[in-house]
């Protein structure tokens, strides 16, 4: 076995060896053609860990034959950046790969940006965070390409694993390994599109396998043990975490219980219970709303139970809350109404509070013209309770209508009452 990890040894040497990411750097893309013709633009590569950001940077360096320097923004200081600038002055142009670029500090930027702008330094920045949220605008403006990489498909991972098994110089081709296509496919399936994890797992599985006459015998049980150790991808409060929250809410809104359970499980495996319960409470009122008002209380009770129980038991009440929200009637009318009212205020659509609605609990209010309020409870109307015919909005907004009912679930009843009251006002 080699000293360097298999994932390190199997990095592509040129862009033609890159596995996956065909939409970003495949032979038909503009980026591929530019690099092949000798022009390498500064760029940002954005995506989850293990999907090829570092590999693509190395492949571009190998294809372009530019002097290559790799730094990590979390550990590099101003002196490291100055060394890159010195190298660029001496050689004419260098390719700088900067990992974790969203952690780039101002001193590093000030030393580097003019040289990136002049083209003496070609910058390839890699980040797991959304560059439009977390990368400094000064950096973004100097990167002509911002490429979001996707997680590799199972077929991509299988291709990568088969290359590693057959490559005699960099891979495991010199070793005698008895492994089936089904086992390779299971490794690919269990690593969730992460090339680095897949290669690391393959190497670990081979090392952990029994030997017989100099041949490694890969066993299904060892594969399953290793897959359980892989875990989920994404970290707390990273871009992927917020994408999971967004996917959970949209799955509930779309009434897909299976998808919602998948994203809930993923979020809980990341361990941030507080963020999950906050989002579930918002969803109860934003997406279920008046169609099933009882859901708000149910979700609150589930969240309080989850907080008291803690993980892993917290998953049980939360799963019940998510299932109920998925299968409940849905309305966003109240949420849209408050947003419409807020938008009107921000546009300057305001007016004076009608005199009969103003505070009269002090001496002298009558002298100011306050008063004349009709107490609705004094005039019952059918089984509704009380209602009085008087204006409540400022006269400038008398005809404004922010609430538009959704005829679903319990809101059918509210919608009927709303329309009847509108008729009363017209009369």
TrEMBL record:
Gene3D superfamilies: 1.10.8.60, 1.20.272.10, DNA polymerase III clamp loader subunits, C-terminal domain (1.10.3710.10), P-loop containing nucleotide triphosphate hydrolases (3.40.50.300). SMART domains: AAA. Residues 39-151 form the AAA+ ATPase domain. It holds the Pfam family AAA_assoc_2. GO terms for biological process: DNA synthesis involved in DNA repair; DNA-templated DNA replication. The keyword Nucleotide-binding applies. Keywords: ATP-binding, Nucleotide-binding. Coiled coil: none annotated. Belongs to the AAA ATPase family. RarA/MGS1/WRNIP1 subfamily. It comes from the Bacteria. This is Recombinase RarA. GO terms for molecular function: ATP binding; ATP hydrolysis activity; DNA binding; enzyme activator activity; single-stranded DNA helicase activity.
């Amino acid at each position: 076995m080699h000293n360097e990890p298999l994932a390190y040894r199997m990095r592509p040497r040129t862009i033609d060896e890159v596995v996956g990411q065909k939409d970003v750097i495949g032979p038909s893309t503009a980026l591929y053609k530019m690099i092949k013709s000798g022009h390498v633009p500064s760029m940002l590569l954005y995506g989850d860990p293990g999907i090829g950001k570092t590999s693509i940077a190395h492949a571009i360096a190998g294809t372009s034959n530019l002097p290559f320097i790799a730094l990590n923004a979390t550990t590099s200081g101003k002196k490291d950046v100055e060394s890159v600038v010195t190298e660029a002055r001496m050689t004419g142009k260098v390719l700088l790969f900067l990992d974790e670029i969203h952690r780039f500090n101002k001193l590093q930027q000030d030393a580097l940006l003019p040289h990136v702008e002049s083209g003496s330094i070609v910058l390839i920045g890699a980040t797991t965070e959304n560059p439009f949220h977390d990368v400094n605008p000064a950096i973004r403006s100097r990167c002509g390409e911002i490429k979001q990489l996707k997680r590799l498909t199972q077929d991509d991972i299988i291709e990568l694993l088969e290359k590693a098994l057959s490559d005699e110089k960099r891979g495991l081709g010199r070793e005698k390994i008895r492994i089936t296509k089904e086992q390779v496919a299971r490794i690919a399936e269990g690593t969730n599109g992460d090339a680095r994890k897949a290669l690391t797992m393959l190497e670990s599985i081979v090392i952990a396998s029994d030997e017989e006459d100099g041949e490694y015998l890969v066993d299904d049980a060892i594969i399953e043990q290793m897959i359980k150790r892989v875990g989920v991808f994404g970290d707390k409060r990273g871009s992927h975490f917020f994408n999971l929250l967004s996917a959970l809410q949209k799955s509930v809104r779309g009434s897909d219980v299976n998808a919602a359970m998948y994203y809930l499980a993923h979020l809980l495996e990341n361990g941030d219970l507080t963020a999950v319960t906050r989002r579930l409470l918002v969803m109860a009122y934003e997406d279920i709303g008046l169609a099933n008002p009882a859901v708000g209380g149910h979700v609150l009770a589930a969240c309080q139970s989850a907080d008291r129980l803690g993980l892993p038991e917290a998953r049980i009440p939360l799963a019940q809350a998510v299932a109920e929200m998925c299968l409940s009637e849905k309305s966003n009318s109240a949420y849209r109404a408050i947003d419409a009212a807020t938008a009107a205020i921000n546009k300057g659509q305001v007016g004076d509070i009608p005199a009969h609605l103003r505070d009269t609990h002090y001496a002298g209010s009558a002298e100011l013209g306050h008063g004349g309020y009709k107490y609705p409870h004094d005039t019952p109307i059918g089984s509704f309770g009380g209602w009085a015919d008087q204006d409540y909005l400022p006269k400038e907004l008398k005809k404004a209508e922010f609430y538009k009912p959704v005829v679903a679930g319990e809101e059918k009843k509210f919608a009927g009452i709303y329309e009847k009251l509108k008729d009363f006002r017209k009369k």
